[in-house]
Amino acid sequence: MQRGPYEILTLLGEGGGGHVYRAWDPRLQREVALKVLRQRSGADPERVHRFIAEARAASALNHPNIVTVFDAAVDGDTPFIVSELIDGRTLREEIGRGP
User: Which of 7, 8, 87, 89 is placed for a possible disulfide with 93 were both Cys, Cβ 3.0 to 4.6 Å?
Assistant: First the structure.
């Protein structure tokens, strides 16, 4: 499956707003994280606006504890955000470990 130029490799997780995939960026020859807004949400212009605003806000930040946003686009009627891929435990796993 493709989203724009990105080849989706596998599902990493899902939440209320959408799905996050491990994907391949053929232009830069690297794996990335690709966050896709849920299909039913993609039809809501306000939801799409907030999703893209999230990408803009995150891309303006530069901190070692925040992933770098590489791209934000809409493929057909499906918005997505592309960011660096961080391997490791999920947030749920980290929270489960306690304070």
Answer: 89
